[in-house]
Automatic annotation (TrEMBL):
The lineage of its organism: Bacteria, Pseudomonadati, Pseudomonadota, Gammaproteobacteria, Pseudomonadales. This is Toluene tolerance protein. It comes from Pseudomonas granadensis.
C-alpha cells in the first residue's frame, strides 16, 4: 500500500464523477481516465481494518480470483490517503451490466438464470465464498461471460465450499425479494437449479441439490 499526499490525491480525482457517496464523503469515483477509485474508511477505531485494510483485501481478492480464472476488476494500485482518512483502490472496472440491471431487459431470462446457476457452482467448487453475493455484484460482460465486482467482502479457500457454506451463500442471495422473484418465481422454472446441478461433479449432484432445493423454492 502506497501513501499519497493530498495534492497527489486531488490530481488523481480531478474531473472525476462521483458514483457513490454517503454522509461521510465519497465512496466510488469514476476518474477522468475511465478507471475507478474506490474509497474505504475505517468505521471504528479498533477493527480488523486497522491491520488488514479493506482496500488491500480488495486487491488481494482480485489476485485470488484471477488465479482461479474468474473475471474481476484489474487493480492498478492501493493507496493510503491520510489527508481524507481513507484507503483507496485504483482499478480498471469490469465492463458490462450487472445482473440486477439485466432483470428488466430483453435478455433471455432463462438462459441467464441457467448461466448464473452454472457460474455459482463454479465459484463454490473453486472455493469462493462471497458473503455479500447479490445480483448487483455479478456482471455480464459484452462477450457474455460472468464476473464479480465489489469484492472486498470475499474469501477464497483451497477446497470446494462445504454444503453449509453454500446454503449460507444462497440464503444471503435470496434475501432480496425482487432478485428471488426473478430467479425462482413462477415464470422462472428450474433454469437456475438445473444450471447449478449440471456444473457440479456427477457424484455431488443428487445429494447437494436435495439439500439446496428446499431453499430454492
Amino acid at each position: 500500500m502506497q501513501s499519497i499526499d493530498h495534492s497527489t490525491y486531488e490530481a488523481l480525482r480531478k474531473g472525476a464523477q462521483v458514483l457513490e457517496a454517503d454522509g461521510s464523503g465519497d465512496k466510488v469515483l469514476k476518474l477522468a481516465d475511465g478507471r475507478m477509485l474506490k474509497l474505504f474508511r475505517r468505521k471504528r477505531l479498533l477493527s480488523s481494518a486497522l491491520f488488514f485494510p479493506y482496500a488491500q483485501r480488495f486487491a488481494n481478492n482480485t489476485r485470488a480470483l484471477q488465479q482461479r480464472g474468474i473475471l474481476c476488476p484489474q487493480v492498478i494500485a492501493v493507496y493510503r490517503i491520510p489527508s481524507v482518512k481513507r484507503d483507496g483502490v485504483y482499478y480498471s472496472p469490469l465492463e458490462g451490466r450487472t445482473v440486477r440491471q439485466l432483470q428488466g431487459s430483453a435478455e433471455d431470462g432463462d438462459s441467464l438464470r441457467k448461466q448464473l446457476g452454472s457460474y455459482f457452482a463454479l465459484l463454490h467448487e473453486k472455493g469462493v465464498y462471497f458473503r455479500s453475493l447479490h445480483f448487483g455484484n455479478v456482471v455480464l460482460t459484452p462477450d457474455h461471460q460472468l464476473g464479480l465486482i465489489d469484492i472486498a467482502d470475499l474469501r477464497c479457500q483451497k477446497r470446494a465450499l462445504s454444503d453449509s457454506k453454500r446454503l449460507r451463500n444462497f440464503a444471503h442471495l435470496l434475501r432480496y425479494k425482487e432478485d428471488r422473484q426473478w430467479l425462482l418465481g413462477d415464470d422462472a422454472g428450474d433454469s437456475f437449479i438445473e444450471g447449478y446441478r449440471q456444473a457440479l461433479p456427477s457424484n455431488r449432484q443428487a445429494p447437494l441439490i436435495s439439500r439446496l432445493r428446499p431453499l430454492l423454492v
